[in-house]
Amino acid sequence: MFDKHIEYSFVEPDSYPVIKAIGYAPLSAQPGESESQKMLMALKVSKLEAYRELAEQVYGQSLSADMTVKGAIAQNDGLKSQVKGLIRGARVVKSYAVGDTYTTELELDMKRVHDLYITQVKPRKVKRVTYY
Predict the structure, then answer these.
(1) How does pLDDT run across 21-38, given as a tens digit for each residue?
(2) Which of 12, 19, 62, 120 has a C-alpha 20 to 30 A away from that of 70?
(3) Cα 92 from Cα 23, distance rounded (Å)
(4) Distance between CA atoms of residues 28 and 106, nearest Å
């Protein structure tokens, strides 16, 4: 019977990219009774759009299409797009209005994402095994 001691080391990539995304929302098209309410809604929508764009860059976009043909003539043609993912560690770089459009810029530093991942999952590889 042997006792053993295992040492682990963490694996870290050589470099970390920074992913950027921009979301837009029209001010005048937002629901609300006052300009302040419309601005707050546009701020929220532009932020959500920026997060959606980040999710597209990180996870990709799922596309599905269908078409109905009858007598060699297209009857119905449809395309559906879907993005699904979880974004952690993104930060708002800035939010501002340009004319009738509200804009939010986000940044996702993959070093920060890696640090968040390490604290939760703790991935590791065996560094050394010592038998006694």
Answers:
(1) 999 999 999 998 999 999
(2) 62
(3) 11
(4) 23
